[in-house]
TrEMBL record:
Signal peptide: none annotated. Residues 1-127 form the Thioredoxin domain. This is Thioredoxin domain-containing protein. It comes from Lupinus angustifolius.
Length: 127
């Protein structure tokens, strides 16, 4: 039940020791995790980012704070240059892009460094 934690790589942040954001560096590991999440009702927020993207760097601390605040939500970070196929599957054309999912289905999307709008969407889909 669920993904094997040894197949995932977590990217812990110093500012929020009690929370973490999952990062994936292989399409196979991402697909395994994604497939296992389809049976769960947990809200998943996928942050599509790039190392060269200024607004993505700005949103980094925001996502860290949200991961600490909304511990019942699963936060995932995917580098669009590293996992191009995954970003293409989700039709990501600009960054930062946030895809909110539940049971393997997209429930909302947000493009841009829009802190308040992202938090509003997370709260909207928590229930």
């Amino acid at each position: 039940m669920g993904a094997n934690i040894s197949n995932m790589e977590c990217y812990p942040y110093a500012s929020s020791q009690s929370s973490h954001i999952l990062t994936f560096h292989s399409t196979a590991k991402w697909k395994a995790h994604f497939d296992s999440s389809k049976g769960m009702n947990k809200l998943m927020v996928i942050d599509f980012t790039a190392t060269w993207c200024g607004p993505c760097k700005y949103m980094d601390h925001v996502v860290q704070e949200f991961a600490a605040k909304y511990t019942e939500v699963e936060f995932i970070k995917i580098d669009v240059d590293e996992l191009m196929g995954v970003s293409q599957e989700f039709q990501v054309q600009a960054m930062p892009a946030f895809i909110l999912m539940r049971k393997g289905k997209v429930v909302d999307k947000l493009v841009g460094a829009k802190t308040e709008e992202l938090e509003t969407l997370i709260e909207k889909h928590l229930n």
